[in-house]
Structure formats: structure tokens, C-alpha cells
Amino acid sequence: MEEVPDAQPPATAHSIKDLQQQLQIPSLDHGLSKAEAAERLKVNGPNAIESHPTPKWLIFLRQFNNLIIYILMIAAILTTIIGDVTDTSVIVLVIIVNAIIGYYQESNASDSLEKIKKMLAPEATVYRDGERLDIPSADLVVGDVVFLEAGDNVPADLRLVDIDNLTIQEAVLTGEANSVIKTTATLPADTPLADQSNMAFASTAVAGGSGIGIVVATGHDTEFGKISQAVSDVRKGRSPMMREIDGIGKGISYAIIAAAVLLFIFGLIIGKYSLPVLALAIVTMVVGSMPEGLPATTSVILAMGVSNMAKKQHVIVKTLPAAETLGSVDVICTDKTGTLTKNEMTITTVVTPKATYEVSGSGYTPKGNFTRGGKPIQPTAHPDLIALLTAGFEANDTELHQEDGRYVINGEPTDGAFLTAYYKVFKKDPDNTERDLMPFDSNNRYMAKLAKCADGKTRLFVKGSPDKLLPLVVTAHPDFDTDYYLKLTSQFSVQGQRVIAVAESTVEPDTTEITPALLEQGLDFLGLTAIIDPPRESVISAIKQMRRAGVKVKMITGDHPETALAIAQKLDMADSPKAMTGAQLAALSDEQRQQAILDTDVFARTTPKDKLTIVTALQDAGNVTAMVGDGVNDAPALKKSDVGVAMGQSGTDVAKDAADMVLTDDRFARMETAIAQGRRIYQNIKKSILFLLPTSFAEGLVIVFTILTQQAMPLRASQLLWINMVSAITIQFAFIFEPAEAGTMDRPPRKKNASMMHKHDVFQIAYVAMMIAGIGLWAFDWLTANHLTDRVTASTMMVNMIVLGKIFYLFNIRTNTLVLSKNFFSNPMAFVIITVMLALQCFLTYVPFMQDIFQTAPMSWREWGLAVAAGSIILIVTEIDKIIRIRWDRLHGHGTFPSVSKTNE
Description:
Elements: H1 16-22, H2 34-44, H3 56-62, H4 67-82, H5 85-107, H6 112-119, E1 123-128, E2 131-136, E3 145-149, E4 157-169, H7 171-174, E5 180-181, E6 199-200, E7 205-217, H8 223-233, H9 240-270, H10 275-289, H11 293-312, E8 315-317, H12 320-325, E9 331-334, E10 346-351, E11 356-359, E12 370-372, E13 375-376, H13 383-394, E14 399-403, E15 406-410, H14 413-423, E16 433-438, E17 446-452, E18 458-464, H15 466-476, H16 482-494, E19 498-507, H17 516-520, E20 524-532, H18 537-548, E21 552-556, H19 561-571, E22 579-581, H20 582-586, H21 590-599, E23 602-604, H22 608-620, E24 625-629, H23 635-640, E25 643-647, H24 653-658, E26 661-663, H25 670-708, H26 717-729, H27 759-785, H28 791-814, H29 828-846, H30 848-854, H31 861-891
Parallel strand pairs: 9-21, 9-24, 21-23, 22-23, 24-25, 25-26
Antiparallel strand pairs: 1-2, 1-3, 3-7, 4-5, 4-6, 4-7, 8-26, 10-11, 10-20, 11-12, 12-13, 14-15, 16-17, 17-18, 18-19, 19-20
């Protein structure tokens, strides 16, 4: 798959004759010989995009490559050897569930290359040996001469050599909706991709006309192929939180293993316990202390958050970690057309020789009012306005209709704007009869329709570029002030608006054809229209909220910089937004480019490579970056970003496949609620970890303290396993339903490398774990030493004491306010879950067959009182700690204390 050599200017800068000589094409009518084409195909390979997906079985096996999983596997083996079937079953179940969740996330993440391959044209029409043939597009080679016509998908990158009103829809590549008018003229070597009008790119669609082009790149060397290669090459790193949880898991695992080894050696030395008893105690300590619930809890909180987003926010999250990563996003890179704007061209201003009119309403829905000088008018009372609207309606070959309750067009967006403006005044089409239509021409840059009108006259209606149309007006009206209207055109353009001139002329009644001579007779000027792709109303408020939350929004578009900058100003993306083109970025040094990307708000005339460069530079600078897009050209950046976001309705399959999440209703404003939901998920995951660790460690410490003091084991392995199991399916998941902390979107996002655990968090984990274990052991020893109860009942009390300690501690960790506050009932599900857990504890304590399995016994009011008192002590101590921290924060000007909700340290 060969390309025009890098040492040479690009194909856009070659003259047709030079390119023909360089690629050794005998003549354009003759094309390559079949023998030469076969030889080139043999040397350079097919015009195809190959992919090498990872086997599903390997993806599944990779899920077991995790330190916690390794330790749990060893624990499962040991419990099997010892004969503890219950322990083994639960451990194996945890391992399998985690593997399935991980496999689902990874295997579902990206089939982008397969989608790209399906977009390649299956056949191509070429000239070989002087014959016009239809061949498989995979057999195309550099130097082939290809014929294009309306409806074709372009099969390879072509340098155009002959055209007939050729327009190509390049939205999949550039993201811009309007069809591109093609030329054959030689262009400068540094012409940006979006302006390469003498090229036809693979997988774009011919909208109108026909043309002939020379293949200059095939397969992976096409612009489309480069995108597919970029998608393939991109490797997304793990999210900041998942990396940190991995780190926490590893650190805890190493500490538990070290403690287990030392404790085992100590137990052997003192000789108090038999080897089976000691081994079972150590395994019980490891399994009890190991935060095996950590991945499961994290996954369930993420999954529930993802489910809520899909049901309530119209956001489908494909990879669970992306839901949390949203909360730490500090830069959003987004496409313009169809994302920030409606991709529905709308006439906002009409300037006639008599007056200037403003038009309200946006998009293709024909609802809106006309004003003049800010005062409402009745359009039908203004003949100059009606004449312009009618001419704009007639010089048109686009259709406007309703589809699934919304107005859509079949044709060009600019033409759709004229139809919509006309229907804002009239319900019926003009009573005119078409005689001839001259489609939009890339040379003339206007279109015209000849019609027999209801008043009996024959009129020529014309609309198009002012610089092309106004000279025709001067022909009929030599005193026409062209400079005034060209200056007005420039003013509108700087504001990001497209300007279309409208004119007409009355011709001889028997005229049936539009000819150059007919147009050269001159036209009567009707006026100018300023057209804009309006910003989505919801986007403006969403960007305002995101700026308040410390999230920057950067626009990346293939559009003209002035147009893009005008939209950015309307959206209030920054106080003084700055714009830069892709070509300007490429001309900078690496250091300058990095700084420019950080300082710039609008990137215009960009290529897919530019988008990837921008996202990568932002990540390298320490930003957590989201990319919002809908086209194939966005796919590499979508995959590379920390969170790729695709549009569900307008997005291509490739974009949706490369993304981590999809906005099903295409509303960019959903990003605001998604980010808020991501921050809530992070808060709740952090709370669940701060809750899980001390309560898990407490179980391990019970065994540690017992061995160190050479006492008999107060708890059996099955009892500790019950505590873990019951906690895992009940109380731990109370955090799933915890609402967001107040002011969540009024704080900046947490920094990329900010630690989830602060010094105080570690301190609190340690003292809570020691309190639960210490109080439990003290109560057990006091009851048995004083012969107040038997060991089985004391052991049962200790199990309930640890569980109640967890419940009381839950109330402390839930919010950053004191437990007795308005937030006490903010999570009703927490009380439901606590009720279920208490019911299970009664089931364990009083049901005979459970007593037989877990060696428990009924408790008296004294034992229950001790268990409640122990839990109350834990709550009181942690609440006193919270009061101290709240006062400390107020004294030192901090908004909240760090252990729960401070996210930007």
C-alpha cells in the first residue's frame, strides 16, 4: 500500500500532468494496464484495512492477573486442604464474579476497526487498458483512474483530475455537515485537510455530480486508514481511581501477607496451637482482613451509577470505570457541529434594500417571528421580505419534512434554512410551475430556478455567494452599491454567520431554459441573509455550570476559525476565548505546542491527527480529559481520552464503538449531569472503602490479638466468614444509594494524582479497627472470665458486636455532617439495608440449624446491651473526631474536611 513519496509534495500540490508522470499512467482515458495493476497489487497489498483482535479467551484469562486474586486463590487452596468448604465456596465465587465483570468491560470496549472496515466501499469503477470496469475496491492500486458519481462511496484517496459539479459529503472525516464543492486546481502543500478541495477521501460519499480521480493512497495509507491505525495504536490507561484502588489493594495485600507469615512463625514458636488450628486461624485472619469485597463493592456502585445514568440521564456508559472518571474530568474537548450546535442552519437576519429584519426560532422547525428594529411585524405586509423568502424557497432542491415528530431535511442545510424561513410565514408552497433548475455549481457558486409564476410572469430565482451574485446585479443596475453589501457580508462572517445573497429577474414568458446568457442579462437584488448553525440552548447553561465546577471546555472543529470563535463567544466558553488552527499548531515546537494547547479554547481546521495530539498533550500536562464527538474522525481521540463520549443519534458506529459512553439524545448538556454523577460515584466509592477497611481489619485483628496473647480462639472461621458475607450483601451496598454531597458541582475536580487516602483517613481506619477488635475481645474475656455466660454465647455476642459496630460506624462515615442532622434520613435505603442485616443476625442467633452450622447460641438482654454499647462507643468517638475536624476546617478556612468529600487536594 503505497503513497506519494514523503520527499515529494503531497498529491494536492501536484499538477495533474506531474502526478500522471510520477505514477506512470499512460493516459487518463486508458488508465493502468491490467498487468501493471496486478503487479502493483502484488507488491503493495490490497486496498483494505486489516485488524488483529485479541482472542476472547485471552481477555478472560487476563482478568485473573491481579495480586488480590492471587492471594484469594491461595487462600481457597488452603481452605480446601483444611476441608473448609464454606470458605472455599465464597472465595471462589468472589474470584469468578470479578473475572466476569472485568471480561465484560474489556471485551465490550472496542470493535472500532471492524466498524471501519465495513465502511469501505465494496466496489470501484476504474479505467484499465482503456476499459471502464467495476472491480472490488480491495484490488485498487496507487495510479488507478477511478470514476465517481452521485451515491458512490469513495473507495480510496483520490487526486481529482476532472469534475462535473462534484460535491462530496465528508462529515465522517471532518465532522462538518455541508457537502464540499470539489475542484481540480493545484493547492499549496500545507493546505489543511478540510480545505483540500482537489481530493476525494476514502469512505466519504459523493453527494452530487461526477468526477474522475487518480488513486494516490490505498488501505492504511488513506486518511481513513490512518484513523483506523490511530484507533488501533491508542492504548487507554486505567482510570486514576482504579489505579489507586489497585495500589491500595496491593499495599494491604502485602501487609496482610507479611503479618500472616510473622504470626504463623510466632504461633509455631510458642507452640500453644496445633498446626491445623494455627493454619486455619492464619487463613481465617487473611480472608477476614483481605478486602475481597473491595472490587465487588466498587463494581456494584459503578454499575448502579451506570444504570441510573442510562435510565435518568440518557447516558449509556460502556466501561464501568468511566462512570467514576467523569467526576475527575477537568477538560472537555468537543466537536462543534451537531454537538455544541444543532447542525440545523437557521436564518437569523434578512437585509433587503429597504430594511433589516430579525428572525426568531432556530433549527428546521418552522416556528418563529419576524421583527424590525426589535418590534414585531406582519411579514406579509412587507413585499420586499416576501419576495426574498419566495426566491430563496424557489432556488432550492432540498426537501423539509417531519420524521418521528421532528423536522428534518433531505439535502443541504443552507437550503433547509430558506425552506424553514418561508414556512414560518406561509403554510403552502408558492403557486409556481418549475421550468428549469440549475444546480449549485462550484465555479459559479450559486443555483437558479426558472418558474412560471401565479401572476403569469416567468421569473428566474437565484441565490448564492455574494461575491458571485452581486456582479450580476451590477450588470442590470450599474449604480448598485456592491461595496456596501460586501462589507456587510464581511461583518456577518466575522460573527460566525454564513451569508447568502438572493436575487431574481423577470424574463421573457416563453423562456424554458437557464443559460449563461440569461444570467448575464442581469438580476434584481432582493437582499442578503445571515445564516448560523445555532448553539444548543441547553449547552450555554451547561458550560456555565461546568466552568463553575472547574471544568474547561475546548472546541475542536474542522470549521473556519472565525466561525468557530464566534460560536465559542456565544457559548461563553471562556472570558476571552482564543482560537488556533491545526496548521498553526503543527508549525510550533513540541514545548510551544504543549503550552498553546493549554492556553487555547478553540481549535479550527483540525485533522483527526490534530485531535489526537490535543487530547494527548492535555493528558501529558496532568489533565483528566473527556472527548465528545460523533464522526469517524473523532475515533482516535475518543479512544485515547480518559472518557470518550459519542453521540447516540448522529454518531457513527465507529465513534460509538471507540467511546466509553454514549449520549443517547445527543445533548451535550448531559455532560454536566454525568460529571455530577461521576463525582457522586467517587464520593460513595471512597466512603465504602473507608468503611470496608477498618471493619475488615478488625476481624483480622481479633485473630492477631488472640494469638499474641496466647488465648483460645474467640471466633470460628465460619463466623468471620458470615460477617464478611452478610456485610458484602447488605450494609456495604448502602453507599450505592447515598446522594451526592452538597456543593458537589461548586468545587474543582480532584487532581489527577491526588491520593484517595489522606493521613487522617489512615489514622481513622487504624483506630476504628482497633476499637472494634479491642472492645469485642474485652467483652468476650469479661463475660467468660467472670463466668457470666458460656463461650458459645460470648462468641455469638462478639459476632453481633462486630456487626453492630459496623452499623454504628456506617452512620458516621455516610456524610460529612454530624449524624444528628438533616442528612440523617437522606438515604432511606440505608435503613432498609440495616433492617435486613439485623434480621439476618437474629436468624444466625436464634434459628436452631444456623446455631448448629455456625456454633452460635441465643443471647440475653445483657449480651445485646453490651453489643449496642460497643457500637455506640465507636459512633461517639468517631463523631467527636468529626466535630474536631469540622472546627479545624472552619478555623483554617477550609470548606470541608478531607476524609470524605474534599476532592481537590
